[in-house]
Amino acid sequence: MTATTAYDAATAARLRADADRIVARYPQARSALLPMLHLVQSEDGYVSPRGIALCADVLELTAAEVSAVATFYSQYKRHPNGTYTVGVCTNTLCAVMGGDEIFERLADHLGVGHDETTSDGAITLERVECNAACDYAPVVMVNWEFFDEQTPAGAIDVVERLRAGEDVAPTRGAAKVCTFKEVSRVLAGFSDGRADEGVGAGPRTLEGLRLAREKGWTAPELPAPAPPAPGATKPAAATKPAAATKPAAVAKPAAVAKPAAVAKPAAVAKPAAVAKPAGEQPAPAPAKAPRAPRPRAEAGSVPPGKPQSGAEPKQPGKADAKPRSATRKRPTTDGEKD
Amino acid sequence: MATTLAPVLTDTLDAARSWRLDTYRAHGGYEGLRRALTQSPATLVETVKASGLRGRGGAGFPTGLKWSFLPRPDGGPRYLVVNADESEPGTCKDIPIMLGNPHALIEGVVITSYAIGSHHAFIYLRGEVVHVYRRLLAAVDEARAAGLVGEDVLGSGFDLEITVHAGAGAYICGEETALLDSLEGRRGQPRLKPPFPAVAGLYARPTVVNNVESIASVPSIVRGGADWFTSMGTPRSAGFGLFSLSGHVTRPGQYEAPLGITLRELLDMAGGVREGHELKFWTPGGSSTPILTAEHLDVPLDYEAVAGAGSMLATRALQIFDETTSVVRCVSRWIDFYAHESCGKCTPCREGTYWLKQVMHRLEAGKGAPGDVELLLDVSSSIFGRSFCALGDAAATPVQSGIKHFRDEFEAGMHTPAWELFPYQASSVFGVGAR
Question: 0.90 cut: is pTM over it?
Answer without folding.
Answer: no
